[in-house]
Description:
The protein is α+β, with helices and mostly antiparallel strands. Helix content is about 40%, strand content about 25%. Strand 8 and strand 9 (about 110-115) form a beta hairpin.
Amino acid sequence: MALKQWAASRRLKPGDGRELQRFRWWQLPLRSLFWLRLPGDARHARLYAVDVRHWARLDNSRVRAHLFLDGRHVAESKLPAVFPVDGGVIEVAMSQYGVKRCHYRPRDGQPRQLTPDPTSAEGRRARFGVRHPGRSRAIAIGSVLLLVIGVGLNLVQLAEPLSRIPPVMQRVGTFESPIHLPIWLNLALGGGAVLASMERALRLRYSALLDAAGR
């Protein structure tokens, strides 16, 4: 067994059989809910649900994901989680801004993203993308641009004080940044980068270079 699978199995706990709660509108910033329908026996398909409560922080601020089968709680795990299901596994992971991965990985075939509940924030963003593809693409491009600009400007401005550290200065010399932004603009760019990462999280898009560095 691979190291990651072994670690994930250690985090996995059995469920208590409780019923899945319906998604409420006031849970939009607090909860994510995803669905996966897999072929079952001749009578009916098997319907899985992954429920993540973003700010239900337990055990050193680690969020748990809960797996439901046909509306009943069958397993839970700290994140990142790997849930064994029919024909493969469901992988769940979070960033600081939301769910960055909730995919079904079959034993044979390509992983595919679970379907967000239509009443969740992720589901509403997906529906907006279907109804307004042009606007959706523009927002997605704007999010990337905000992160690229924010990360680039931060790196340029950080290079100058870092270059004045004596060991660095002796090896590579000093660097004078051509850009010195006022504090209010730095704060505005930082806020824009956070909003951009939150928007990308609604689409389960994550880049360690952009979303993590843009914090």
